[in-house]
């Protein structure tokens, strides 16, 4: 069901979180990451297309990751400051069905 993770995808240093999107949940590999450059690996592990939005809870800034088809994966680097970030899928109806999660970002 899930795409395999290529070895190159995980950086040698820094923070990393894998976000697997299924109907209708976001499964995070980590509940918290360290601040700075965070490698976000987005995986559509479901049967429908899903995108990913990441909002900085303090500034309100939103990072938009692409709409993926089932089995696709996308790697992004998001610069995160300490605080709380909100993740969700913005496909209509999916937030309400449960596709949202919180990621805590801690100072190093
Ligand atoms: Cu979705």
Topology:
Elements: E1 15-22, E2 25-28, E3 32-34, E4 36-44, E5 50-56, E6 62-68, E7 73-80, E8 83-88, H1 94-97, E9 100-106
Parallel strand pairs: 1-4, 3-9
Antiparallel strand pairs: 1-2, 4-7, 5-6, 5-8, 8-9
The structure holds copper (II) ion.
Structural class: mainly beta
Q: How would you sum up the global shape?
A: globular
Mean pLDDT across all amino acids: 91
- Name given to the CATH homologous superfamily: Cupredoxins -  blue copper proteins
At the fold tier of CATH, the topology name is: Immunoglobulin-like
CATH architecture: Sandwich
**Under the CATH scheme, which class?**
Mainly Beta
The main sheet orders its strands as 3-9-8-5-6
Number of folding domains? 1
- Strand % is over 45%
Bound molecules: copper (II) ion
SSE string, helix = H, strand = E? EEEEEEEEHE
């Amino acid at each position: 069901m899930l795409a395999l993770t290529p070895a190159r995808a995980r950086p040698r240093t820094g923070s990393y979180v894998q976000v697997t999107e299924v109907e209708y949940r976001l499964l995070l590999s980590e509940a918290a990451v360290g601040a700075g450059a965070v490698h976000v690996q987005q995986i559509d592990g479901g049967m429908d297309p899903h995108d990913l939005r990441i909002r900085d809870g303090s500034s309100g800034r939103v990072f938009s990751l692409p709409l993926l088809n089932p089995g696709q994966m996308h790697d992004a680097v998001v610069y995160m400051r300490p605080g709380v970030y909100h993740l969700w899928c913005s496909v209509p109806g999916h937030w309400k069905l449960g596709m949202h999660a919180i990621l805590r970002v801690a100072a190093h």
